[in-house]
Amino acid sequence: MAAMDIFEFRDMFSGVRSAAFVGNASSVLFWDNGKIIDSYDMIVRFNRAYVHGLEEKIGRKTDVLVSNNLNSLKLSPSPTKTLCPKCVVTFVKPKGGLDTGPLKEWVGDIPHVITLEPDIFGVGSINRTRSLTMGTYSLYTFLRLFQFEKLFLTGFTMFGIVPGGSEKYYEREKNQRAGHFHDLESRRKLFHS
């Protein structure tokens, strides 16, 4: 187990000039972007993402898995058995009594960062009713940590419902809606801003 701070994470990927952020919206399966995604220096995936059988659509590589500290642990196998990322990043809510033991066990020996959800500055006042997504926190944070010259985004519903809906590609049969758990309206305003 190799715990890192956010600065060691930045150093780990210091040579990165391009990044592909591959969200989990079912719309990610509409295109054959696998080769394009794999051509980027850093490929970022989220939560319970998997690529097996979908490589033509979403690529093979995973450099960073951004994982929810509760949801992913309960509902998916360890990333050591699925994506084998170079690093796992987890944003947590600032509260006392956080037990990181289960997360560290789930991550295994993959280098990992556990850090606080960032305050989103510079976008005006946005009153949120629920938390934002791991994708939102990641984009906000990574765009400040790295000097990307090229950025590719796919599989996000940042401006609300898109063709295919807001279901996750790995949960389509459950009709899981991200808008139930996250404040998509605030996220739309954030990205527009």
What does this structure look like?
- This protein has 193 residues and is of the alpha/beta class.
- It has one domain: Alpha-Beta Complex (sialyltransferase cstii, chain A), CATH 3.90.1480.
- It is 27% helix and 16% strand.
- It is built from 8 helices and 7 strands, in the order βαβαβαβαβαβαβαα.
- A 7-stranded parallel beta sheet has the order 1-6-5-4-3-2-7.
- Strand 5 (87-92), helix 5 (101-107) and strand 6 form a beta-alpha-beta unit.
- The radius of gyration is 16 Å and the shape is globular.
- Residues 175-180 have low confidence and may be disordered.
Largest sheet: 7 strands, parallel
Q: Report the helical percentage.
A: 25-40%
N-end to C-end Cα span? 38 Å
Order of helices and strands: EHEHEHEHEHEHEHH
Give the helix/strand class.
alpha/beta
Percent strand equals 15-25%
* Overall mean pLDDT: 83
> Regions with pLDDT < 50 over 5+ consecutive residues?
175-180
Number of strands: 7
What topology, given as strand order, has the largest sheet? 1-6-5-4-3-2-7
